[in-house]
């Protein structure tokens, strides 16, 4: 059975078991499965830093020149920003239609303090890792990207002398792809455990009052994935959108259950290369970059939540405030880390930008995990969509692979030699 089907079945069974345990008053059994999920998540996290570095170095040396790198960055950045802005607009529109905040009592909200927004200059200066070992130790993805690109370029510039380094890095990249394959084989178990835990812990009582917020975020995520991503794939890249959906299903479900797009990165990279035919040069650059700065699901969620909070407090927003929300939420999503709950912290920043009460964050906090699941899936799907678009426009998409879609089987996932070309 293909891996994505196994993961999907694990998701469904986990949901059913979790809800049953919750409804029969046995939530503690659901919670006891969490360590199994954490084991799987640790396995993926173990790979993130070496995988980004090694595959990006191997990808850059395959590209060979700086101008291609510059073009790739520009295309990816523009697509990331444009899709994010559209996502917030979808969020705002749905919240305006569904009015999730009308009639909500915010009496019990506690005080919350706003997150600090990092200054642009500080962010730019911090791009260059003064201490690369610290960057690796802290898992600072942007710094690792910068270091890897420069390292890769230096290998290319050193010419024949550095050939052994290139060969070594290419070989190491293969080793890490195998390594990722071993961990991915455990995805169904990890997903099952995590989903049972979440479904078992969150009862309907907790979710019911905010059902409209949840509905709006989930519907928005669905619209964004089906209309925006699949639409871009079909009309801009001129590829079959169904294949795209099939290809991203594994990382999307892992993101759904782990609520961390950074934590899902190894699986996202693997799927983009093996399922969607994106070249390693593109995937190893565009995906880690996207995981760090592209958060469409998070932006969409912020659009819904900001309007929800405004409605709950009976505050009408002006056109200028809507524009401010779109701008700050786009910027905030760039600064959001791909870790569980990060979007909630950034929500306080967006609220501050338009002078809305921060207490609203406390209301959302109770159900944030549920919203995080949907938005993280969309974050990951967006990264993959952009990777496909960029790869296609650069002639770096293996369309044969995209069309035939070598769906992973769990039996061969750990043994198969990655068919990906650099
Ligand atoms: N959990 C999200 C992610 O990892 C970030 C967020 O909280 O919105 O992509």
For this entry, give a set of tags.
binds aspartic acid; disordered C terminus; 422 residues; 21 helices; mainly alpha; single chain; Proton glutamate symport protein
Can you give a write-up of this model?
The protein has helices at residues 3-23, 27-31, 34-63, 66-98, 120-125, 132-138, 141-157, 163-184, 187-201, 204-207, 211-236, 241-258, 261-274, 280-293, 296-312, 319-335, 342-353, 360-365, 368-393, 399-404, 410-413. It is mostly helical. The chain has a single domain (3-404), classed as Proton glutamate symport protein, CATH 1.10.3860. Mean pLDDT is 87; it is low at 409-422. The structure holds aspartic acid. Aspartic acid binds at residues 259-262, 295, 298, 336, 338-343, 372, 375-376, 379.
Beta percentage is under 5%
Low-confidence stretches: 409-422
Helix content: over 70%
Give the termini distance in whole angstroms. 28 Å
CATH class: Mainly Alpha
Number of domains: 1
Give the class from helix and strand content and strand pairing. mainly alpha
The overall strand count is 0
Tell me about the largest β-sheet: none
CATH superfamily: Sodium:dicarboxylate symporter
Give the ligands present. Answer: aspartic acid
- CATH topology term: Proton glutamate symport protein
Briefly, what is this?
The chain is mostly helical.
Q: Which helices and strands, and how do they pair?
A:
Elements lengths: L2 H21 L3 H5 L2 H30 L2 H33 L21 H6 L6 H7 L2 H17 L5 H22 L2 H15 L2 H4 L3 H26 L4 H18 L2 H14 L5 H14 L2 H17 L6 H17 L6 H12 L6 H6 L2 H26 L5 H6 L5 H4 L9
Helix pairs in contact: 1-9, 1-12, 3-7, 3-8, 3-9, 3-13, 3-14, 4-11, 4-14, 4-15, 4-16, 4-19, 9-12, 11-12, 11-15, 11-19, 12-13, 12-19, 13-14, 13-19, 14-19, 15-16, 15-17, 15-19, 16-17
